[in-house]
Amino acid sequence: MLDHQHQGEMPYTSLIVKIGGVVFAIIVPYLIFSSFTSPIQDIPGPWLAKFTDLWRLMDFYSGTQIETQRRLHEKFGSAVRIGPNMVSLNDPALFKTTDFYKVNDAMQNGNRIQNVFSTRDKALHAKYMRPIHKLFSLHHILSQEHLFSRTLMQLCQHLEERFIDGENTGLTCDLAQWIEFYCWDVDGEVTFGQPMGFLKAGGDETGMIHASELSQRYFGIVGQMPWLDVWLGKNARCPIKFPTFARTAEYCAQRVAERQASSDKGPPIDFLDHYIEAKRLNPETVTDNEIIRYLMINILAGADTTAIVTKAIVYHVLSNPAVHSRLRDELDTANLSFPAIYNETKDLTYLDAVIREGMRIHPVLGGIVERVVPEGGLNLPDGRVIAPGVLVGMNPWLIHRNKEIYGQDSNAFRPERWLRHAFETQDDYQRRLRRMKDTDFSFGAGSRACMGKTFALVEIFKTVATLFHRYNVSLILPGSGSDD
């Protein structure tokens, strides 16, 4: 005889099984039918990817997406199906942004805050950009160069006090960590008029950097199936708290409130001043939420990404003694200021080649940059046509290693590829250089290229030149027996 407890559980369990069976019976045939009627059914790729985007989500989660996509393109060619409506391409082109970027919206007081990175609407993007576009010009960035220089001097001061001078002489420095602290402090200095305090603390005491890293990781994974974000990160009722950009949004909102409440109404100095001024001049367009959007892009798209590129450049230079020596020779004869001034560095040929090669070999984005095929379709080199509405994308890590464009040694760090070869005519060199530059996805491409490109390049040129000119740095690998 069954007791009352089991009598209650049996129907409930049976109901779940029945519901699951019905869902399975509906979804599986739908997925199979969709795979055979898909406009990209002739594009080869992994079997599971025909039916669900879960395949690429799991691949991204495992951190193997770059190697996986490389192998798939070697096997199947320039076009590989990696989702029911998603094709990975190994040829550069320009496409419209997709819902992948919707995950990058932030939530503030329950409201979704889009920004100039996350919006997919071209008109809305132009609306966001118009009041602030001039702030990202080289002229304006150089007007703030003293703020970059002030933080760069602070970095050098901390390095010398903690690892070089006095009793600390000879201590090993985790330079990558200090470059990250520095990049965040530069962003704080230029955006809010004060550093964010990471250099002074010698660590991430506020947890801001760690929170950003977790949020970027979440963004990358869930961006493979963007609708999941509605039920996870953007769902206030979800019992599990997923990493979001809410902390950054709150931090920016606090800075806006403090600045607007301040009695100091002098001329604009930092980005926040200029954003508030943009609100005054464009009240119909720029709201307080708009200012928060602008500030979030400064922080999220500025600090971490610039740090990644700078650390990669330093690592590759130190890993190649010949490159290190040639770079030091050029910097030593350049009569640089301390810290280096951008206009002193921008025409240094080998420094420019080193930075370009660093951005090529280690692009910030490790995932596919997605676009939507426009009306008329996309013609592939072999004559196939990808239908309008299909998602396509390119992984900068693959594009930047295209042997037809960058040479058979495209997997190697070799700045000389950006210089004129002894056997080349000037015209041949310019054609080769233009082809490489046209395939450079370090900052995206076309109308949706990163608006902070000039900001980042000024910072990178100044930082790399100053560090390698001022210090004789050597690479110490873990387990080498040297002090930590």
From TrEMBL:
GO terms for molecular function: heme binding; iron ion binding; monooxygenase activity; oxidoreductase activity, acting on paired donors, with incorporation or reduction of molecular oxygen. The keyword Protein transport does not apply. PROSITE patterns: CYTOCHROME_P450. Heme binds at C450. InterPro entries: Cyt_P450 (IPR001128), Cyt_P450_CS (IPR017972), Cyt_P450_E_grp-I (IPR002401), Cyt_P450_sf (IPR036396), Cytochrome_P450_monoxygenase (IPR050121). Its cofactor is heme. Keywords: Heme, Iron, Membrane, Metal-binding, Monooxygenase, Oxidoreductase, Transmembrane, Transmembrane helix. It holds the Pfam family p450. The chain crosses the membrane at residues 12-33. It comes from the Eukaryota. PANTHER family: CYTOCHROME P450, P450, PUTATIVE (EUROFUNG)-RELATED. Belongs to the cytochrome P450 family. This is Cytochrome P450. It comes from Neoarthrinium moseri.
